[in-house]
Amino acid sequence: MCKLCDLFGNGERWYFKPENYARNLYKIRPPGYKVGSGKDPETVAGELMIGALQVKFNNPEKFPEVREKVNKKLLEVNICQVITLEECNYIIDNLAHPLALLSCICRRLLRAREETDRESYSCLATGVGVYKWERWPERYKGGVEFVSPEEAKEWIANWDKKGMVHTVMTFGSPYIGGICNCDYDCLALRMRQFYDFEYVLKGHYVAKIDLEKCVGCGTCASRCQFGAIRKIVTKNKFVIDMTRCFGCGVCATGCKQEAISLIERESTPYLKNLW
């Protein structure tokens, strides 16, 4: 199991635990606490990350040590894990209530893109933490639309068709605040791919191509956001580098030949510790 399952799932998949969708509506402050008396964990993690990037460019040999400190802090405050479309649907049907569509803060910050309606919203808020929106006006600036499970599944299927990677995201571990649909505009994915900050952990699956069924169309490679799929030119076939695969399944849902299957990461000794 991954570290999140060990920490928050009692050895089971942590994002299938109902209690991890039951965040307190408001923080319970310790006796004597005063607002502004200390930095919140999110701010501390952000400052550590900025410091680590400075170390990477100025003193690169020390970067791995500093990065490990950042990753430990991220576990406490804000971390994501890739999940499949099927897992999204299970969460929507069985675990998370209420459900609300809202805008992506990463796209607003990195692309100045505002999402203001159901067609453009790319994040799904889950669980009672949704009711905390009035405390974060910037996070919910584009508005919020509550939806039924059927509406949420139809909405997320549309993003899957567009090739988005689905992730569950904590907002104060272990509490899951939502399901995000991510691409290059996602700050968490960038930080993982470029610097190996564990904002996003790999999923519990890896993809595998059946070469007998593969017709070499390349749809899978065009949908993979992790550079895990390449072409065997002499055979006009595609193969997957499982060490780079994040297990999102977007290649499988886009394959018209049904040539791609997902297997459990832990079923392969070499992959079971690559998260």
What is the string of SSEs from the N terminus onward?
HHHEHEHEEHEEHEEHEEHE
How far apart, in Å, are the first and last alpha carbons?
Answer: 9 Å
Strand content: 15-25%
Strand order of the largest sheet: 4-2-3-6-5-1-7
Total helical segments = 9
Low-confidence stretches: none
Structural class: alpha+beta
Mean pLDDT across the residues is 90
Number of structural units classed as domains: 3
| Shape label | globular
Q: Care to count the β-strands?
A: 11
Q: What Rg do the Cα atoms give?
A: 19 Å
Helix content: 25-40%
Taking the sheet with the most strands, its summary is: 7 strands, mixed
Structure report:
This protein is an alpha+beta fold and 275 residues long. The chain folds into 3 domains: 3-28 and 78-201, no CATH class; 41-76; 205-267, Alpha-Beta Plaits. It is 32% helix and 18% strand. The chain contains 9 helices and 11 strands. It has helices spanning 3-8, 41-58, 63-77, 85-94, 105-111, 149-161, 187-195, 219-223, 250-254; strands at residues 80-83, 99-102, 123-126, 144-147, 165-170, 176-182, 200-201, 205-209, 229-232, 237-240, 260-264. The strands form 3 sheets. Strands 4-2-3-6-5-1-7 form a 7-stranded mixed beta sheet. A two-stranded antiparallel ribbon has the order 8-11. α2 runs antiparallel to α3.
Question: How would you summarize this macromolecular structure in one to three sentences?
Answer:
The chain is an alpha+beta fold. 32% of the residues lie in helices and 18% in strands.
Helix and strand arrangement:
Elements (H helix, E strand, L loop, with lengths): L2 H6 L32 H18 L4 H15 L2 E4 L1 H10 L4 E4 L2 H7 L11 E4 L17 E4 L1 H13 L3 E6 L5 E7 L4 H9 L4 E2 L3 E5 L9 H5 L5 E4 L4 E4 L9 H5 L5 E5 L11
Parallel strand pairs: 1-7
Antiparallel strand pairs: 1-5, 2-3, 2-4, 3-6, 5-6, 8-11, 9-10
Helix pairs in contact: 2-3, 4-6
